[in-house]
Amino acid sequence: MAQLYFYYSAMNAGKSTALLQSSYNYHERGMRTLVYTAEIDNRFGEAKVSSRIGLSSPANLYNSSTLLFDEIHTAHQREAVHCVLVDESQFLTREQVKSLSEVVDILDIPVLCYGLRTDFRGELFTGSQYLLAWSDKLVELKTICHCGRKASRVLRVDQQGQPFKEGEQVQIGGNERYVSVCRKHYSEAITTGSLQAIYGNQHPGQD
Ligand SMILES: [Zn+2]
């Protein structure tokens, strides 16, 4: 039986690396995968998933109007698909998460989604909300705060290292604008308006 998986984390937990490793494991056994990533994330300027350790894979782009079930069904009819992997899955709509669960239930293809749980305000992304609600398997990819505790929050910081309290949920750019922190240090940074509680006088861009 195929299952719907959600691998979630704060930033910088190696999500893309984990996705590429899983895809590679299928290829090694002569199986075919379909890789998706969000069109909104154009960090690398083209349709592919790249990891910081140098791995990459071509990818299909999705946006909020992509009909995922239809696309995957068509591809599967042309040539059997053994696994679907979705990066940046926090950007999926509710309907798209439903479509992916139908890929699992009707087409019997496992779907592995990788994404962020919450935004820099600590609010769930829409895709993550429904993946948390409907996935068969939830797997947390852990990363740590500067203090050694588990990082469960993401701070968005400006160039001077001041954390944002409000703003648009989506602002894709380099990771230097985001810092993974534990809940305690998230609160302290927001309350004091600086990262000094976390880093002392060290520059946050170095982490
Ligand atoms: Zn901490």
UniProtKB/TrEMBL annotation:
<keyword id="KW-0963">Cytoplasm</keyword>
<keyword id="KW-0237">DNA synthesis</keyword>
<dbReference type="GO" id="GO:0046104">
    <property type="term" value="P:thymidine metabolic process"/>
</dbReference>
<dbReference type="InterPro" id="IPR001267">
    <property type="entry name" value="Thymidine_kinase"/>
</dbReference>
<feature type="binding site">
    <location>
        <position position="178"/>
    </location>
    <ligand>
        <name>substrate</name>
    </ligand>
</feature>
<feature type="binding site">
    <location>
        <begin position="170"/>
        <end position="173"/>
    </location>
    <ligand>
        <name>substrate</name>
    </ligand>
</feature>
<dbReference type="GO" id="GO:0008270">
    <property type="term" value="F:zinc ion binding"/>
</dbReference>
<keyword id="KW-0418">Kinase</keyword>
<keyword id="KW-0862">Zinc</keyword>
<comment type="similarity">
    <text>Belongs to the thymidine kinase family.</text>
</comment>
<dbReference type="Pfam" id="PF00265">
    <property type="entry name" value="TK"/>
</dbReference>
<feature type="binding site">
    <location>
        <position position="145"/>
    </location>
    <ligand>
        <name>Zn(2+)</name>
    </ligand>
</feature>
<feature type="binding site">
    <location>
        <begin position="9"/>
        <end position="16"/>
    </location>
    <ligand>
        <name>ATP</name>
    </ligand>
</feature>
<keyword id="KW-0547">Nucleotide-binding</keyword>
<dbReference type="InterPro" id="IPR027417">
    <property type="entry name" value="P-loop_NTPase"/>
</dbReference>
<keyword id="KW-0067">ATP-binding</keyword>
<dbReference type="GO" id="GO:0005524">
    <property type="term" value="F:ATP binding"/>
</dbReference>
<keyword id="KW-0808">Transferase</keyword>
<feature type="active site" description="Proton acceptor">
    <location>
        <position position="88"/>
    </location>
</feature>
<dbReference type="InterPro" id="IPR020633">
    <property type="entry name" value="Thymidine_kinase_CS"/>
</dbReference>
<dbReference type="GO" id="GO:0005829">
    <property type="term" value="C:cytosol"/>
</dbReference>
<dbReference type="GO" id="GO:0071897">
    <property type="term" value="P:DNA biosynthetic process"/>
</dbReference>
<protein>
    <recommendedName>
        <fullName>Thymidine kinase</fullName>
        <ecNumber>2.7.1.21</ecNumber>
    </recommendedName>
</protein>
<dbReference type="GO" id="GO:0004797">
    <property type="term" value="F:thymidine kinase activity"/>
</dbReference>
<comment type="subunit">
    <text>Homotetramer.</text>
</comment>
<feature type="binding site">
    <location>
        <position position="147"/>
    </location>
    <ligand>
        <name>Zn(2+)</name>
    </ligand>
</feature>
<feature type="binding site">
    <location>
        <position position="185"/>
    </location>
    <ligand>
        <name>Zn(2+)</name>
    </ligand>
</feature>
<feature type="binding site">
    <location>
        <begin position="87"/>
        <end position="90"/>
    </location>
    <ligand>
        <name>ATP</name>
    </ligand>
</feature>
<keyword id="KW-0479">Metal-binding</keyword>
<feature type="binding site">
    <location>
        <position position="182"/>
    </location>
    <ligand>
        <name>Zn(2+)</name>
    </ligand>
</feature>
